[in-house]
Amino acid sequence: MGNPLFDLTYGLFVLSVNVYKRDNACIINTAVQVSSDPQRISISVIKANHTADMLNYTDDFTISTISQKATFDLFKRFGFQSGRDVEKFEGFDGCVRTKNGAYAITEGTNSYISAHIEQRIDLGSHVLIIAKITDMQSLNDDPSATYAYYHSNIKPKPKTDASKAGKTVWRCKVCGYEYEGETLPDGFICPTCNHGAEDFEKVTL
Ligand SMILES: Cc1cc2nc3c(=O)[nH]c(=O)nc-3n(C[C@H](O)[C@H](O)[C@H](O)COP(=O)(O)O)c2cc1C
After folding, report:
1. Ligand 1, residues 16, 27, 63, 77: which to mutate, most atoms within 8 A of Cβ?
2. 123: pLDDT confidence band, cut at 50, 70 and 90?
3. Cα end-to-end distance, the chain, whole Å
4. pTM (2 decimals)?
5. Residue 194 pLDDT more than 70?
6. Which of 187-193's residues contact partners 24+ apart within 8 Å by CB, and which partners?
7. Is the CB of 144 under 6 A from ligand 1?
8. Which residue from 10, 14, 28, 76 has its CB within 8 A of the most atoms of ligand 1, so it is best to mutate?
9. Which structural domains are found in the chain, ordered by start?
10. N or C terminus of the chain: which is more exposed, having fewer CB within 10 Å?
């Protein structure tokens, strides 16, 4: 028993964009098919993310569906750092350029879908984007990774640090970042993955 929001199921994706010849991508868990005629998907992107900024300058993007073969490195590269600070594709070979110019990830994924944006809906913390599918490709038969699979099998288990024994921390359920203190400040945003206070759990070490 717990927060019903944590009982929702999700897939995991790398959302890629190419704007003015610059590439960037971030991990998302919020892609779903929302219509079949025409085929459309929606994605929900945290507005603080650089990828969200870039999506203001292009109507095209590609999502690559993460498979159970993905390693934590994929999440670290695309989900725990910002394209504002690093070139995420530097030294990364596991990708191909799709027809719309954005990269598809070919390592640790099983397919990709490119789409053209039709609507952007401002939801406060996130922007909800509805887009028509323009191209898609299956890469292999590896099973998709769900968010639950990521938590149980891909995300490393937190290490116990003897110097922190007995202390209370608030741990980000998405990336494992720990904030030390009895209470989490109002409106706290994870400095590693940009998720909000609702994604933190109180843990006594
Ligand atoms: C498992 C996981 C799921 C995530 N889901 C989303 C999501 O649905 N939407 C989103 O905007 N960011 C999501 N993120 C956070 C972004 O991937 C992260 O903030 C990234 O560093 C943003 O990079 P950028 O600033 O280059 O866009 C997720 C991260 C992880 C690790």
Report:
1. 27
2. very high
3. 22
4. 0.89
5. yes
6. 189/48, 192/80, 193/79, 193/80
7. no
8. 28
9. 4-150 (2.30.110.10), 157-204 (2.20.28.10)
10. N
